[in-house]
Amino acid sequence: MHYGLIATYELVVVFGFSAFMKSLSVGSFVETMRQLQLGRYSKALALFIIGLEWLAAIMLIAESTRWCGQAVVGILLLSFGWALWRAKVLNRQVQCSCFGQGSQQFLGRGTIVRILLLALLLGLSLSGLGQESEPLSWIDRLLSALIAGGIFAIVWLSNVVRTEFKAGNVMNRREEVS
Q1: What are the backbone dihedrals phi and psi of residue 104, each rounded to the nearest 5 degrees, phi first?
Q2: What is the per-residue pLDDT across 52-85, written as a single tens digit (0 to 9) for each?
Q3: What is the pTM of this model?
Q4: Which of 86, 85, 61, 54 is nearest to 10 (CA)?
Q5: Residue 62: other Cβ atoms inside 10 A
Q6: Phi first, then psi: what are they for 98, rounded to 5°?
Q7: Residue 116 and residue 83: Cα distance in Å, rounded?
Q8: CA-to-CA distance for 38 and 32, rounded, in angstroms?
């Protein structure tokens, strides 16, 4: 099994999905930047971060540009850490908008966990650089992409269920059915 490739495709899925969702609700992400008190640079920085996420996702796909994509992911992780630090220094609850309007969380412990998991994926992705002694078949690449997509879907759905339980929506629906 090519764990480095699976980790790389997982990063493609995560950053591609994040960029797509943020692109659909740019205003929500700009508001997050405003909450971090970035002033007139809020919109430009929001668009820059979205652009970097698209760039990372695209560059990670091709083997010839993968190292550049990995560097962009590293820069993004540092910027996410900086945003977390900034919210802490400002002593404010800042809406995350990690996945556009699809994420209803605040910067905090959950953000730290996500950053660490993405750093772990980046480490695994980096460990696979230059280790492929023979070219991978399209089946290996497809299987790696399907595994990465499946992992993302499971994590995303579990997050949705957890959010619904926290909001009490699941319990209210069960009571209505009874």
Answers
A1: -110, 55
A2: 999 999 999 888 898 999 999 999 999 999 999 9
A3: 0.76
A4: 61
A5: 10
A6: -60, -35
A7: 15
A8: 10
